[in-house]
Specification:
2 copies of one chain form a homodimer. In chain A, the strands form 3 sheets. Chain A has a 6-stranded parallel sheet with strand order 2-1-3-4-5-11, with helices on both faces. A 4-stranded parallel sheet of chain A has the order 7-6-8-9, sandwiched between helices. Chain A has a two-stranded antiparallel ribbon with strand order 10-12. Chain A is α/β, with parallel strands linked by helices. Helices cover 43% and strands 16% of the residues of chain A. In chain A, strand 3, helix 7 and strand 4 form a beta-alpha-beta unit. At the A-B interface, helix 4, helix 5, strand 2, helix 6 and helix 10 of A face helix 4, helix 5, strand 2, helix 6 and helix 10 of B. Chain A binds a DNA duplex through helix 2 and helix 4.
DNA sequence: ACTGCTATTGTTAGCGCTAACAACGCGGCT
DNA sequence: AGCCGCGTTGTTAGCGCTAACAATAGCAGT
């Protein structure tokens, strides 16, 4: 029997032949079917091992009509938040035996999101996770068929879709309350871009907390998440002498703010307290170390995958809304207001 | 003719029937074959459009034995550098019509890299990009078959593999030279973890530049990339009064250093100049704005994909070594030494 | 001994596509 | 007229796997 061992990966039939069974029995062993005699299973496993056989996932996908690939659409994955979320998602998916195919976007427009959706659809992904921090991204989801399993991360209100997000509300409230409890009369807010859902949520929670505490609601400054925009906001605030506490919508902008204050000779937290949001790794080493809010991105990843796999298992799209925790991290950039 | 329009995605045969041709002709049109009459092509395209037909990539992959999926193994994608590289890779791959499947690692060990390789192999990726900034990652590649198309990013010496990396040498030399030219007698180096190839390359270039300039080579301090380790290094340096210039191996550590100096009352750049490496978005807003080295990560991504696709096209693994540019960004943290 | 069941294994037919080959029609050539 | 060659299209056979069904053996119950 001329054995053709010519650089061709072994297939199921090779294993079957070697184990002296049919290829279907090999398949059964591989899929953990019951009703395979223990001795047969052992023979098959031995043959698999000897041949270093690996099941061809493409053929499997064709036969089962499931690819075990999850598609992830992400935006600006060079930022700490999205990158961390993506990381959490990938870890959870791999642990569950799924593959992760990504499509990252330079900018969020309905068109770019649509193209990314197309790209992943072409790969026939089993499920979809869309990190959709902006209105436009959520809007682009409307074109998806209703039965498409999908989880929207940070999607605010995504009608009819499962959503996972960080508890922005709790985080922003906690910072604001923290500042008020230190004795500040009110807290100024430097918000993120208005079309970002996270920016909206943080601003809304800040405002609600002030109102609830009976504190005046000062006008909002708006940035674009960048240190530069925080710097500009800081320059503006530096000219005013009624400001004692600022809640900045993310740490990068807070950094810019700190720098503007430093240049203006404003002591932090001596004269003005500053708090951020995100707890990027650098935040603890700002000058001064930044009080901020830490988000549990790993949890976001895990919950997203869990929700998606749940949909795949039941075959029913869900509309659950899951919230991952966020908590205040107090450092040296916040203190009681100056006793003037 | 009872048309069964029952929630089943159309397949090639449906298109063929509608266009009045054989499914093979549809395939030919889709694959851009020559020798299809223009009128036939038009009919087919019309039918595709009417049915919103999408080719099933799984079946295609099974028939062609190519999945059009590229696997990427990445480490610590929450850091700015790796995240940017990954982003560049994904953009380039998608533009070339390839899918990107990722496996990110918490830690680099031969085992974790091996598992990630397994995971991607199971998906039968056509090619592999390994972002391997550490010795161990490169070592783990030894288990790959020699004919596996693979590109190693930041892989230092990866024998027999194609490598793409940033020109660490040029970047580190430029910073060091910059500091010497400002009049500093020598430059102290705070290095990254010794098992990181980038850390090694930066340190080696720093040392070579000093030697070349006839400057003394002071002992090296070592950190772990984190702001905290930079802070500790800064505290040590603060106790010495012979230091006038420090080249820190990345921006995050430089941030820690700046903070330590600030606490110690050391003026930057008045008494000590500090330079970093990476040009993270925050760097321009440190206090003072950081002189650093910017790396062209997008270019790294593009070149990696180009190199990989080249291997796939020729069927021959290459051992090219491609270097992406890095250039000095001078900001306010470096100046002439104090005139004592 | 015969029936009926269960546990185990084998056989067959696709999944939706591409590759290789076969077939066909048509104009130009001898 | 008959043949060749070319451009175009159809037919057939897999790619490697799983699902559904068929077949077999072994055993208990009557």
């Amino acid at each position: 029997m001329a054995r053709e061992r010519i650089r061709r990966a072994p297939v199921m039939a090779d294993v079957a032949q070697r184990a002296g069974v049919s290829h279907q029995t090999v398949s059964r062993v591989l899929n953990g079917h019951l009703n395979v005699r223990e001795s047969t299973r052992a023979k098959v496993l031995a043959a698999i091992d000897e041949l270093s056989y690996r099941r061809n996932s493409t053929a499997r996908a064709l036969a089962t009509r499931r690819t075990r690939v999850l598609g992830v659409i992400a935006f600006d994955t060079t930022l700490y938040g999205p990158a961390s979320t993506l990381f959490g998602i990938e870890q959870a998916a791999r642990a569950a035996g799924y593959f992760v195919s990504i499509a990252s976007l330079k900018a969020i427009t309905e068109r770019s999101v649509g193209q990314a959706l197309d790209h992943l659809a072409e790969q026939s992904v089993d499920g979809l996770i869309v990190i959709a921090p902006q209105r436009a991204a959520v809007a682009a989801l409307a074109s998806l068929p209703a039965e498409q399993p999908v989880v929207v991360v940070e999607g605010g209100e995504a009608p009819g879709r499962a959503v996972v997000c960080v508890d922005q509300q709790a985080g922003a409230s906690a910072v604001t309350r923290h500042l008020l409890e230190l004795g500040h009369e009110t807290v100024v807010h430097v918000a993120g871009p208005p079309d970002w859902l996270e920016a909206q949520a943080r601003q809304a929670a800040w405002q609600a907390t002030l109102v609830e505490a009976g504190a005046p609601v000062p006008p909002v400054l708006t940035g674009d998440w960048s240190p530069r925009s925080g710097y500009l906001a800081g320059q503006q605030l530096a000219t005013r002498d009624d400001v004692t506490a600022v809640f900045v919508a993310n740490d990068q902008m807070a950094l810019g703010l700190l720098r503007a204050f430093q240049e203006a000779g404003i002591e932090v937290p001596g004269r003005i307290s500053v708090a951020g949001f995100d707890d990027i790794p650098e935040a603890a080493y700002f000058y001064p170390p930044l009080t901020t809010v830490r988000q549990d991105f790993a949890e976001v990843g895990r919950r997203s995958i869990a929700l998606l796999l749940d949909q795949l298992a039941t075959g029913e799209p869900t509309t659950d809304r899951v919230v991952a925790p966020a908590h205040l991290v107090v450092r040296a950039s916040t203190a009681a207001p100056p006793t003037s």
